[in-house]
Amino acid sequence: MSARAAAGSKERVIAGFWTVARTGACLRRCALTRKPLPHLLYFTDPVRTPDPEAVAGRLPRGSAIVYRTFGAADAEAVALRLKAIARRRGLKLLIGADEALAARVGADGVHLPERSAAQAARIGARRPNWLITAAAHSPRAARAPVDAVVVSAIFPSNSPSAGRPLGAMRLAQIVRLGGPPVYALGGVNQATAARLLATGVVGIAGVEVFLSSPLAKRRGER
């Protein structure tokens, strides 16, 4: 790839990041929720975003990190570093599917897989100040007793686990069912973000869309 082509590719990635960030902020302003909710959720992935601390250091204030450990031996150390970044940058930290780890590192809550969403009520009773979210891949799952659900996949996605895309129209129907606030996950980028504005979702979730942003370089922060 030529230097000119590489520069153009980087500019497109950065433009995509800010399109998603602005859309997420707009969605959050338009939503009425029981608890203050982040407008963006960054889901860590050891393959697709192998340096979660670098990505976390680029997130806009008011976003959240969802740290998924996938059994990593150094999960607690990574979580503590992410918590420090979150505190410094005005972010929230959720731990994926591990209440004990979330408590040890002083996280702001947990994100549960769809199969574990029934645990939310018990966790919430023990930790009423936590933010509890859960994955949802169907209208029924989107009514889980949590603070917010993350519905996927909305658009075609690079995730190996992504199913058939629901599309913006189906997403809007799920939102109208009246369950907890909904985040859109899967294939959200510069080209698709604007299609979420009329769906009623509270914000945007993603993985690779947060890989590049000029924010950290401009502020000199990690």
Structural account:
- The protein has 222 residues and is an alpha/beta fold.
- It has a single domain (3-216), classed as Aldolase class I (TIM Barrel), CATH 3.20.20.
- Helix content is 34%, strand content 16%.
- It is built from seven helices and eight strands; from the N terminus they run H-E-H-E-H-E-H-E-H-E-E-H-E-E-H.
- It has helices at residues 3-30, 52-56, 75-89, 99-105, 120-126, 167-175, 215-219; strands at residues 40-43, 64-67, 92-96, 109-112, 131-136, 148-151, 182-185, 203-206.
- It has an eight-stranded parallel beta barrel, surrounded by four helices.
- Strand 4 (109-112), helix 5 (120-126) and strand 5 (131-136) form a beta-alpha-beta unit.
- It is globular and about 40 Å long.
- The model is unreliable at 214-222 (pLDDT under 50).
Question: Helical proportion?
Answer: 25-40%
Query: Biggest β-sheet, characterized?
Result: 8 strands, parallel, barrel
List the domain count as a whole number: 1
Number of helices: 7
Radius of gyration: 17 Å
Within CATH, the superfamily carries the name Aldolase class I
CATH topology: TIM Barrel
Quote the beta fraction: 15-25%
What is the terminal-to-terminal distance? Answer: 28 Å
Shape call = globular
Strand order of the largest sheet: 1-2-3-4-5-6-7-8
CATH architectural grouping: Alpha-Beta Barrel
How many β strands by DSSP? Answer: 8
Poorly predicted runs: 214-222
Question: How much is the average pLDDT?
Answer: 88
Query: In sequence order, what are the helices and strands, one letter per element?
Result: HEHEHEHEHEEHEEH
